[in-house]
Inverse folding.
């Protein structure tokens, strides 16, 4: 194995919709309020679905499961860090209360698609792209991702 082996960070994000609003979390990056979908890194010994559920609960206090796969993104951040991001859709019948359990999250917001797409303070370009992708009708079944433990 060579030292230049590609080792991307694997992350999951959830585009959560209820009553035509979308759940966003606000955190401080370099002291500035920044918006992201509930998202985070895959931990050892968990599936993508378990990781998505865990991150959603930690960052928002909501217990929900991914319902479909929206997109898989490969992205290299401006600092050269490579990411593979699995983005899931969750549609809820009504807006639930939120309570972040992650101290890095300042608050949760329910915003319109337009507010997100045009927000100047998104965590990465994947936030906007995931929102635009959600607005398209295509969804992939979760069965496209097979877990072997």
């Amino acid at each position: 194995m060579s030292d230049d082996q590609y080792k991307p960070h694997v992350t999951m994000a959830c585009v959560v919709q209820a009553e035509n609003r979308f759940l966003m979390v606000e955190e401080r990056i370099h002291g500035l309020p920044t918006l992201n979908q509930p998202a985070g890194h895959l931990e050892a010994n968990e599936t993508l679905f378990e990781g998505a559920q865990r991150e959603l609960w930690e960052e928002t206090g909501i217990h929900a499961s991914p319902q479909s796969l929206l997109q898989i993104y490969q992205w290299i951040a401006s600092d050269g860090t490579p990411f593979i991001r699995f983005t899931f859709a969750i549609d809820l019948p009504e807006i639930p209360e939120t309570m972040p359990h992650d101290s890095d999250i300042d608050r949760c917001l329910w915003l319109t698609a337009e507010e997100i797409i045009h927000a100047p303070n998104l965590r990465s370009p994947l936030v906007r792209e995931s929102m635009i992708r959600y607005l398209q009708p295509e969804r992939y079944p979760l069965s496209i991702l097979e877990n072997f433990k």
Observations:
- The longest helix spans residues 48-60.
- Helices lie at 48-60, 113-117, 125-134.
- The chain has a mean pLDDT of 94.
- The two ends are 24 Å apart (CA to CA).
